[in-house]
Design brief:
alpha/beta, seven-stranded parallel sheet, 5 helices, globular
Length: 227
């Protein structure tokens, strides 16, 4: 049998990251999860690195512990919401750190050891197109799309693909986060929230050999909200 492919997942302890861990284990990956808390996963194919991605030193130390990987999914993140007259620079800086700077720091460390034909997926948001009351979050999610297209062009000669999966309102703990109390989630036209396993399935496809020709793209999972 071929050796297990090694996948790094940030934000592995809950939400979309945890759903992806379970899906990728079913697909035969060996997984390293990176999050502040241990993920509720019991599998010999799973290992955990506890790391605060808000801290560049902690992130760098965690990256130094990693073995070479075949795929990297950046699912860690959070949202703060505020009207334009109430935004704070601290909130914007914090979201930039977790959604953008941590991804840059990790992939910069990993890229020399990322295997040919590897995969990178950033978990974005359909709000990258902009939304009232969510300006700073929209900005960092738009930045992820710029990163993905830039990295895709840089890594394409090694057969490495880089894409964004951008869900709408997804049924994760982030929806109950007090930091977004000023903006309730909007139920998509399908009449329910997106499920984390639906997002994980899209990511799983991008990690598969069948997606080798897809790079620099954003796949939106919105339940009709973009119509």
């Amino acid at each position: 049998m071929p050796p297990q492919k090694h996948l790094l997942v940030t934000g592995a302890s809950s939400g979309i990251g945890l759903a992806l861990v379970h899906r990728a284990l079913d697909d035969g990956f060996r997984i390293t999860g990176m999050s502040r808390r241990d993920a509720p996963v019991s599998s010999s194919a799973y290992s955990q690195i506890c790391c605060d991605l808000m801290d560049p030193v902690s992130t760098g130390n965690a990256a130094a512990q990693l073995e070479p990987v075949d795929a990297f999914v950046h699912a860690a993140g959070f949202m703060t919401t505020a009207s334009l007259d109430a935004v704070t620079l601290d909130d914007g800086d914090a979201m930039w750190r977790i959604h953008v700077a941590a991804a840059v720091q990790l992939l910069s460390a990993l890229s020399p050891r990322l295997s040919a034909g590897g995969r990178v997926v950033l978990i974005g948001s359909r709000l990258a197109a902009g939304a009232a009351g969510r300006s700073q979050y929209a900005a960092v999610k738009a930045a992820q799309q710029g990163l993905a297209r830039s990295w895709a062009g840089e890594l394409i000669e090694r057969g490495i693909t880089v894409n964004v999966v951008a869900p709408g309102a997804t049924d994760t703990p982030m929806l109950q986060d007090p930091l977004r109390k000023s903006a309730s989630p909007r139920i998509p036209p399908i009449g329910r929230l997106i499920r984390p396993d639906e997002v994980a399935s899209a990511v799983a496809f991008l990690l598969s050999p069948s997606a080798a020709a897809i790079t620099g793209q954003t796949i939106v999972i919105c339940g009709g909200a973009s119509l």
